[in-house]
Specification:
With 332 residues, the protein is mainly α. 73% of the residues lie in helices and 0% in strands.
């Protein structure tokens, strides 16, 4: 129990402190400037793009270089991850639509439900919760996590962001799917896919990864958490949890009840046990993703709704992480 508590506190510190730093940066400096909102938006956009360009591609390459590629039963993991994202997005959209919210909120709730913080928070949980004496850097867990999220990056950049933009469009801004895709697509988002592709090619070519690179991917995870945490902290200046409380509670029910039960139940029925089951449960239990807030900033979605969803579901990790620290080891 002490070990579970220690790991929980370390995970929560990594989750919270970078965001607090970004918010403090806004409060003590940017908010006092005449063009503070505009400057905060530019800094958030730049830091999110830096993450997409400089941190995520090499991390994906290193992990896929040594990962067990989908084969046999493990080939189900990428499709499970994609199904969880689709289920979360559909549930979030239905929640907002059935509650009578307008299209901008529906689009934001779709993206909030469809995105989970697998890469950053999930990576930290995997590294700190599923590391072992035989695997001190948690690279086996990171490899299983990457199997789960093989289709995540294409889904986010090519489907989720454009769909959220389309669902959010109203009046004169409403347009065809093709026009919305062209407006919301960012070429820079192809770089993480390229990093993943290079890693897979090196893996298939059976080129040995130098021992010097062991554990480097876990530091890219940490760097990504820091950079995107500051981005989110800046964006939270528009969050209003009190006004969006009903949506926050609904999305939390989707994130922390519907999706983990669906993912773990499906894998259990398929006969998965041990590391793959543990990792999938961690991935499906993550809060609204950094990338949802980044997407709101990059493609012009409702920052108040998505910031509020991110803040509320991330705060809920104070409860969720200790539960995972107790439950996940029992699935070994």
């Amino acid at each position: 129990m002490n070990d579970a508590l220690g790991r929980s506190l370390a995970i929560l510190a990594w989750m919270v402190l970078p965001v607090v730093a970004g918010f403090v940066l806004w409060r003590i400096w940017l908010s006092r400037l005449k063009d503070g909102h505009a400057l905060a938006s530019r800094i958030a956009r730049t830091s999110s793009q830096a993450s997409i360009v400089a941190l995520i591609p090499p991390m994906a390459m290193l992990v896929f270089w040594n990962a067990s590629l989908p084969a046999g039963p493990s080939a189900a993991l990428p499709f499970l991850g994609l199904t969880v994202h689709l289920l979360g997005g559909a549930a979030g959209w239905l929640l907002a639509r059935s509650s009578g919210f307008d299209r901008p909120v529906q689009g934001a709730c779709f993206l909030g439900g469809a995105s989970s913080n697998v890469l950053t928070f999930g990576g930290i949980v995997a590294v700190l919760l599923l590391s072992t004496p035989e695997d001190p850097h948690g690279e086996q867990a990171l490899g299983a996590m990457q199997l789960y999220r093989v289709l995540e990056a294409p889904f986010y950049y090519l489907v989720a962001w454009p769909v959220a933009a389309y669902l959010s469009s109203t009046g004169p801004q409403a347009s065809s799917w093709g026009a919305t895709f062209r407006r919301s697509f960012r070429p820079v988002t192809l770089l993480p896919l390229a990093g993943m592709g290079v890693g897979v090619l090196l893996n298939l070519a059976k080129i040995h990864r130098p021992g010097l690179l062991d554990g480097v991917s876990s530091w890219f995870v940490r760097g990504n958490v820091l950079l995107l945490g500051v981005t989110v902290g800046l964006t939270l200046r528009r969050a209003a949890v009190g006004r969006q409380l009903s949506l926050c509670l609904g999305i939390s029910a989707i994130k922390f009840a519907l999706l983990p039960c669906a993912a773990a139940g499906a894998l259990w029925l398929l006969g998965f046990r041990g590391l793959h089951l543990q990792t999938a449960l961690v991935c499906a239990s993550m809060p609204v993703a950094f990338m949802a807030v980044v997407g709101a900033n990059l493609v012009g979605l409702d920052e108040e709704v998505l910031g509020s969803l991110w803040l509320f579901t991330t705060a809920a990790m104070v409860v969720i992480v200790p539960l995972l620290a107790v439950v996940v080891p029992r699935l070994a």
